[in-house]
């Protein structure tokens, strides 16, 4: 079975509403045939890398790989061993694909460039998201945004990616949890694939993925930062406590919190927080290129919204490859409710 094609054992693969990777790419809008082939090859490499990372994660505790690598990344954050493993896995596969001209990563200060004879794209990735969960075998993810490269010469690869950041063609996340899921979004739809560990490939799950009607009742936010939020965010959280029908869910991994809210309805917030004891990110903790843009693209394709509290995420100019932003992302109803209660403009 080739990756992305239904596995022999996945009975649902034959059901109504399943799309293989190539069928999904064929229905994606605004791409030439050559671009479709290039995107399909990139998605095939991402699914191959996800399968390899999933296998390595399962063996992590036995191989003593759930801790730190001992050094800091460009973000000044402690790098987990699996941050490096995932980085090397995806960089190796995407670099060898001949379809990725520039790769920017949360784990590398500078872009990597690769020779591409034919149509190619730029990719921004968070190779391992939620890595603080590794020590306790909690859910983690990988996140990718695929931008249409303008094809200009790559004298300044970082600028080439920043200039293309508003032209997202496809966004992907992998969730490594009780199952390993691959969620792929084009502008017109979101589809989900599950790793079949026996057949060693991803099989399509039926149907389009969309936020549920009504928007759900889940709010995901790290309330430990309450005293460091601005007044609008505190007003929103205070209002929640006077409301009966909501529940809090927060696991410290954007991919897991986003995925649960996508399926059940809800909103994830990581607002800017004022510095305290030398820590804090007034501009927001999460990264625009590697986390906010891909999740915002997926949310919009699934009928949701995403803002930094002032501007729709997909309208924010990218000025630095490691730029951080505040992020409010989820079902339309919940994001609009945040805006009304926090006094923020609606991201529509
Ligand atoms: P990463 O592991 O790629 O650095 O991402 C961690 C991010 C995100 O996944 C999560 O939502 C957030 O950090 C959690 O931050 P706090 O622990 O500060 O709540
Ligand atoms: Mn992350
Ligand atoms: Mn990461």
Describe the protein's architecture and organization.
- The chain has an eight-stranded mixed sheet with strand order 4-3-5-6-7-8-9-10, with helices on both faces. It has a five-stranded mixed sheet with strand order 12-11-13-17-15, sandwiched between helices. The chain has a two-stranded antiparallel sheet with strand order 1-2.
- The chain has helices spanning 21-27, 33-59, 81-96, 157-164, 231-241, 254-264, 288-301, 332-342, and strands at residues 68-72, 78-80, 100-105, 112-113, 121-129, 140-148, 168-176, 180-186, 189-196, 201-204, 218-220, 247-248, 266-270, 286-287, 304-307, 324-325, 327-331.
- It is globular.
- By secondary structure, it is α+β, with helices and mostly antiparallel strands.
- The model is unreliable at 1-16 (pLDDT under 50).
- It has two domains: 10-204, Fructose-1,6-Bisphosphatase, subunit A, domain 1 (Fructose-1,6-Bisphosphatase, Chain A, domain 1); 218-342, 3-Layer(aba) Sandwich (D-Maltodextrin-Binding Protein, domain 2).
- Residues 83, 106, 126, 128-129, 131 line the site of one manganese (II) ion.
């Amino acid at each position: 079975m080739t990756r992305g094609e239904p596995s022999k054992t996945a009975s649902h693969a034959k059901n109504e509403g399943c799309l293989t990777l190539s069928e999904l790419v064929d229905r994606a809008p605004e791409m030439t045939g050559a671009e479709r082939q290039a995107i399909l090859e990139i998605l095939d490499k991402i699914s191959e890398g996800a399968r390899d990372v999933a296998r390595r994660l399962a063996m992590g505790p036995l191989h003593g790989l759930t801790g730190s690598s001992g050094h800091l990344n460009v973000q000044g954050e402690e790098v987990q061993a699996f941050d490096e493993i995932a980085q090397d896995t995806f960089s190796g596969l995407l670099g060898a694909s001949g379809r990725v001209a520039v790769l920017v990563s949360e784990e590398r200060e500078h872009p990597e460039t690769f020779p591409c004879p034919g149509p190619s794209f730029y990719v921004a990735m968070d190779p391992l998201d939620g890595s603080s969960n590794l020590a306790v075998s909690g859910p983690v993810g990988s996140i990718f945004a695929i931008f249409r490269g303008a094809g200009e010469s790559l004298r300044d690869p970082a600028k080439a990616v920043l200039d293309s950041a508003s032209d997202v063609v496809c966004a992907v996340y992998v969730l490594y949890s009780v199952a390993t899921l691959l969620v792929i979004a084009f502008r017109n739809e979101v589809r989900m694939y599950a790793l079949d560990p026996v057949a060693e490939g991803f099989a399509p799950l039926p149907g389009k993925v969309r936020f549920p009607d009504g928007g759900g009742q889940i709010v995901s936010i790290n309330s430990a930062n309450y005293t460091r939020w601005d007044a609008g965010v505190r007003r929103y959280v205070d209002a929640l406590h006077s409301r009966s029908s909501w529940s809090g869910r927060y696991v410290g991994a954007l991919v897991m919190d986003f995925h649960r809210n996508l399926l059940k309805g809800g909103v994830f917030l990581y607002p800017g927080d004022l510095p305290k004891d030398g820590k804090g990110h007034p501009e927001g903790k999460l990264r625009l290129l590697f986390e906010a843009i891909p999740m915002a693209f997926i949310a919009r394709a699934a009928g949701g919204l995403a803002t930094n509290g002032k501007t729709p995420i997909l309208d924010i100019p990218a000025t630095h490859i490691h730029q951080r932003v505040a992020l409010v992302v989820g079902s339309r109803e919940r994001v609009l409710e945040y805006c009304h209660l926090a006094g923020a403009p609606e991201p529509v």
